[in-house]
Amino acid sequence: MLRHLVRRTSSIRAAFPPDSWQAFTACLPRTSRFMVGQLDAVAASAALHPIHPPNHSRGLTTGTTLTGNAASNIHAASAESASEFLDDPGLLRDEAYVNGKWVKAKGGKTYEVTDPATHVVIARVPSMGAADTRGAIEAAAAAWEGWKQKTPKQRGDVLRRWYDLIQHHTMDLAKILTLENGKPLAESRGEVGYGASFVEFYAEEAKRTYGEVIPSPTPGRRLVTIKQPVGVAALITPWNFPIAMITRKAAPALAAGCPVVIKPAEDTPLSALALAELAERAGVPPGILNVLTCPREHAAEVGLELSTSLNVRKLSFTGSTKVGKILMRDSASTVKKLSLELGGNAPLIVFDDADIENAINGVLAAKFRNAGQTCVSPNRLLVQSRIYDEFVSTLAEKVANLQVGHGLQPGVQIGPLINPGGLEKVQRHVHDAVKKGAQVVTGGDLHALGGTFFEPTVLGDCRPDMLVFTEETFGPVCSVFKFQAEAEAIEMANATPFGLAAYVFAGDVGKGWRVAEAIEAGMVGVNEGMISTAVAPFGGVKESGVGREGAKVGIDEYLETKYLCLGSFR
Ligand code: ADP
């Protein structure tokens, strides 16, 4: 479909004299103009990376940077159209947000943000580093006292306005999200709603940060605890949920009375800046919410500054276990309070008495969200031998029908992978599995759209010595393993240093419960593939992290419990 649209756009364009094409597109409605710009870009990108016929043996597509005339044409076309296709173009910001001001990097440099589906440059944002980070931390520390002194209700009122604004601008936020992340627009809308739900929840929860009165063992004393904000919180977030990962941290922090310094992922800063714009409109005071943008090359220096600063009292990170360990090590120097939500390697167990249709729907919902680039996506499907063949063939049929394309295109269910590095990992996992004897039931290769698109894939006959078992694939690949008995399934599920999410599908509820208890994971879905919600605690065990986000426990991550002992009572 996308290829067809690209060809149609190219051929219509070819029929116009060069100057009249721009005049023609200028007359189109805003959204159509944007789509034409995107399709032009895909066409130009395909010219650089020819579209391959399916099943053709292909190498890695790592050279996806556009160069030469095509790149400059695309840039000129998209920079203009990207802000025009929003109802409120003011949400597309290209400066960082520090101390209530929109600012450039101290060094004056910028870096490019691209659409992963077309490699079109959408914006250039400040390339910040250690000095910018110090400035943001100082601003946050200076603003803390005023925010801390507000009542929980006053802070909750500001959060409530932020929530209303996020809801009001759902469509614009979703478009920005799809543009920079690649996920289908319907998923982006879902993410905006999910992200907003944390703001709504913590707007209320601010009022419920209760202390305790403890019966004293000694006469003449009264013992109480009060909850106080921990202080400036550094929030480092990933690209796979550019809105929800920020609100899941920022909302409880702000509700608790903590200012935040946010470092969004380099691939997806625009969603973070749009959230900052709405926070400003909601009345978040200067210095209380800051967003630093930086390219990957600066992530380590910004991270070091955040984790070693005495003024930063809390660090919350979502991302890889590798980076989480670095931040944990560096934060030790200031004994910082930490929340780490790290990598997963989720097992999904299907017992032979399960409702197979429900299990397959669970797999489709949990596995293919964001093209499989979700830390709670099932990575290893463990299927009991008696139903194995039927399960694999039914799953493969459904997976083969998933629609792949640009996330703004209606009906698309799978977008591109975020970047060439993500694609390379998926390819490496598939190659390794096939080399060791896995069977490609469907997919298994680069998608005909080229770029970082990968075919939705089902691999059968997988074994524990494959990378698809030991590492998180983070792509649209279902790796299916066979087991015979319950104990074997539990052993396989736990044979990993990770423990974020897990799923069990079983007809016998007792078995589902028993296995859920036995699996080493922070969250288990029993006969359910979609488990994330603002009202339940999200987090992992083992190398999947420490701390919990969401729910009433989520705000405790930003609070200290202070004990007061009142003596001399008669
Ligand atoms: P991924 O591989 O999915 O990008 P990462 O853990 O590398 O996951 O990235 C998650 C977030 O951590 C991003 O915002 C990224 O910029 C940031 N990051 C990467 N390296 C560091 C580092 N050394 N210190 C602090 N943050 C980092």
TrEMBL record:
Enzyme class, spelled out: oxidoreductase
Tell me the keywords, alphabetical order: Mitochondrion, NAD, Oxidoreductase
Give the metabolic or biological pathway: Amino-acid degradation; 4-aminobutanoate degradation
**What are the residue boundaries of the Aldehyde dehydrogenase domain, all occurrences included?**
102-563
SUPFAM superfamilies linked to this entry: ALDH-like
Q: Give the EC number.
A: 1.2.1.24
Can you supply a Gene Ontology BP term from the record?
Answer: gamma-aminobutyric acid catabolic process
What are the annotated GO cellular component locations?
mitochondrion
**Catalysis performed (reactions):** succinate semialdehyde + NAD(+) + H2O = succinate + NADH + 2 H(+)
| Residues annotated as the enzyme's active site | E341
Q: What is its main location?
A: mitochondrion
Spell out the subcellular localization from the entry: Mitochondrion
What superkingdom heads the lineage?
A: Eukaryota
Task: Give any GO molecular function from the UniProt entry.
Answer: succinate-semialdehyde dehydrogenase (NAD+) activity
Record's family?
Belongs to the aldehyde dehydrogenase family.
Q: Quaternary structure per UniProt?
A: Homotetramer.
Q: What is this protein identified as?
A: Succinate-semialdehyde dehydrogenase
Species of origin? Nannochloropsis gaditana
